[in-house]
Amino acid sequence: MSETQTNTLQYRFDGPEDAPVLILGPSLGTTWHMWDRQIPELVRQWRVFRFDLPGHGGAPAHPADSVAELSARLLATLDAVGVQRFGYAGCALGGAIGMELALRHPERIASLALVATSPRFGTADEFRQRGVIVRTNGLDPIARTSPDRWFTGGFAAAQPAITEWAVQMVRTTDPGCYIAACEALAGFDVRSEMGRIGVPTLVLVGSDDQVTGPAEARTLVAGIPDARLAVVPGASHLVPVEQPAAVTDLLVRHFSSAWQPAIDSTTGQMAIVAAPAKPVLAAAPQAAPIAEIAPPVAPAQPPGRPDAYETGLKIRREVLGDAHVDRALAQSDDFSGDFQEFITRYAWGEIWERPGLDRRARSCVTLTALVAGGHLEELAFHTRAALRNGLTPDEIKEVLLQAAVYCGVPAANSAFRVAQQVVREETTPAE
Hints:
18 helices, eight-stranded mixed β-sheet, elongated
């Protein structure tokens, strides 16, 4: 077990000290215990390293709001314990960390397994909306609905103890760290870079996963040159928990046969060694995995250097949401297109990008200015933006009360009516 600093992660080792290291990365809202049922078999060949995300499983609550930052903390932790090269298997957010490592630090990874993972997780709006709900209502609404996202209905009904364990695991997570992890998933998108992942990769998914299902898995296999797909029947998102024998079998087979040797730093070449014999493990009959091999595709070209417009478009989407920005751009034409480019480049790429105020402060200023000008339509979507930027409903209320003093009661009365409706829509958890 570990003691954790701000720039490292809580971790534990299992298995013999002289064995090669295999890392298991957790999903959002889970702890390293999601891999408990894989450990007895994996430690026969590997020294297994598991870690907790910040604020999860009692880990210190030092939020990290990007996959890159989580990856950096993991590498700092590994450096501190002397682990330089490793195999890596991660579920969902843990899989995103694995892809980040394979792209930015390929010399560290010998082989990769991506479980219930996607090159982009839904839309940024979905995760920022989840952050708004947690900030307003706490984690209880997310915790109560987690089993519906994580397990098939039959498993949840047959395993009430595991279902309750899942609820409590989310409920005891630090809300600020959970929100930051949502932000990390909102900003994660490696669709254009997958072709540069150069290690043997297993893509593993439950057949009934409604979060990152077989369609997302096939996208990964099509984009990663040396990738195989395994679909586990009768499993949803937390497939290592729901079908542990099948997942263990697949991981052992993959890491036994696809452990890529290290690159010789003096020659830049890689030694070719014979693959070890594949072990044969008996998986549960109802969970017999189906594996497919997909042909590689040419890697995508890296994007060009962003200018103020590209920066502005990114910030505009982060603050206002993809759906709003997509509507605005779709409605532009020859008459209004120049204006859309103007506000994207200068309002968002220049002003909102400036470091002098954080986004919370800019939202306060913007709401006040919109109340003063009586711009109620823009007040509505900037109230949504303020919630995404981290303001709570109570803080928005205080901004509008302040505006009532300096902008006038009638203006504030109209503003409260608009903002009240938006807050209700944005902070009411979905049933």
